[in-house]
Amino acid sequence: MQILGLIAGNGQFPILFARAARAQNIRVIAAAVQGDTSWLLRPCVNKLQWFRVGELKKLFAYFKSEGVQQVIMAGQVNPNNLFAEKLQLDEEFEKLYHALKDRKADTIFSAIAEKLKEQGMELLDSTILLKDYLAPKGTLTRRGPTVSELADVEFGKTIAKLMGGIDVGQTVVVKEKAIVAIEAMEGTDRTILRGGQIAQKGAVIIKMSKPKQDDRFDVPVIGPRTIENMIKSKAGCLAIEAEKTLIIDRPACIKLADKAGICIVAA
Are residues 101 and 149 in the same domain? Predict the structure, then answer.
């Protein structure tokens, strides 16, 4: 039986991946992050152990003891963990952390990937078992984008790609070709809510992959919670990148969006 190690962050992505792996008779050895990973992951994997952020040496030992040679990263880790006053880094993580040229997501995850490689483990494309969940090109909801929304989408795509190119974030909020909010470490959900407070109504949310997206980590993901936050923000349109963005529970997303009159388009 094939074995995969799973470094599981928050949200539904790790659960979705674990279920897909189990369906293919793959043994999943999960490393769960305290304060981030959902307890609902436990019944979906063969083995699960909890870790604090910064316990890299313990993580390597755990995977090695279970015969893991290939690893997947799925789900975000709350960036607040990196700035916690009580953050405790083991010797392995401390060396890695202080050697980083910056604290951008790609820099951190690339460094962890290199450390895994040094330990004889390969970090794989996180969408490897989830290609069917990538957004197909076109309008996904009953309502298509208006002329005004399409103009905002095209405007916002350029900004999102620029921001992704310098590894700032994947999401921008636009209204009438004005940049209302740009995602940084707070994540997509908070960006949508912040943008909604400013735009008041009718904002367009654009979420794109980075120009040099490394599919081993930080791939664009949306799900029902994304749509729920758009409803709270009275946003009108969500544009995502076709064949690059994972959709968690597509039927639920579309149902929520249709009920609220929101358009989802994959461009």
Answer: no
Same domain, yes or no, for 105 and 190? no
Structure tokens at 107: 């820099």
Pairing between strand 263-266 and 237-240? parallel
204 and 236 housed in the same domain: yes
**Is there a domain that residue 170 lies in?**
yes
Angle (CA) 171 187 255, round 5°:
70
- Do 152 and 237 meet the contact criterion of CB atoms below 8 Å apart? yes
What is the DSSP code (8-state) at residue 186? T
Q: Which amino acid is at 190?
A: R
Q: Residues 21-49: pLDDT tens digits?
A: 999 999 999 999 998 999 999 999 999 99
This prediction's pTM: 0.93
231's CB contacts (< 8 A; 6+ apart) are: 256, 260, 262
pLDDT at 84: 67
Could you tell me the residue range of the domain that residue 178 belongs to? 134-266
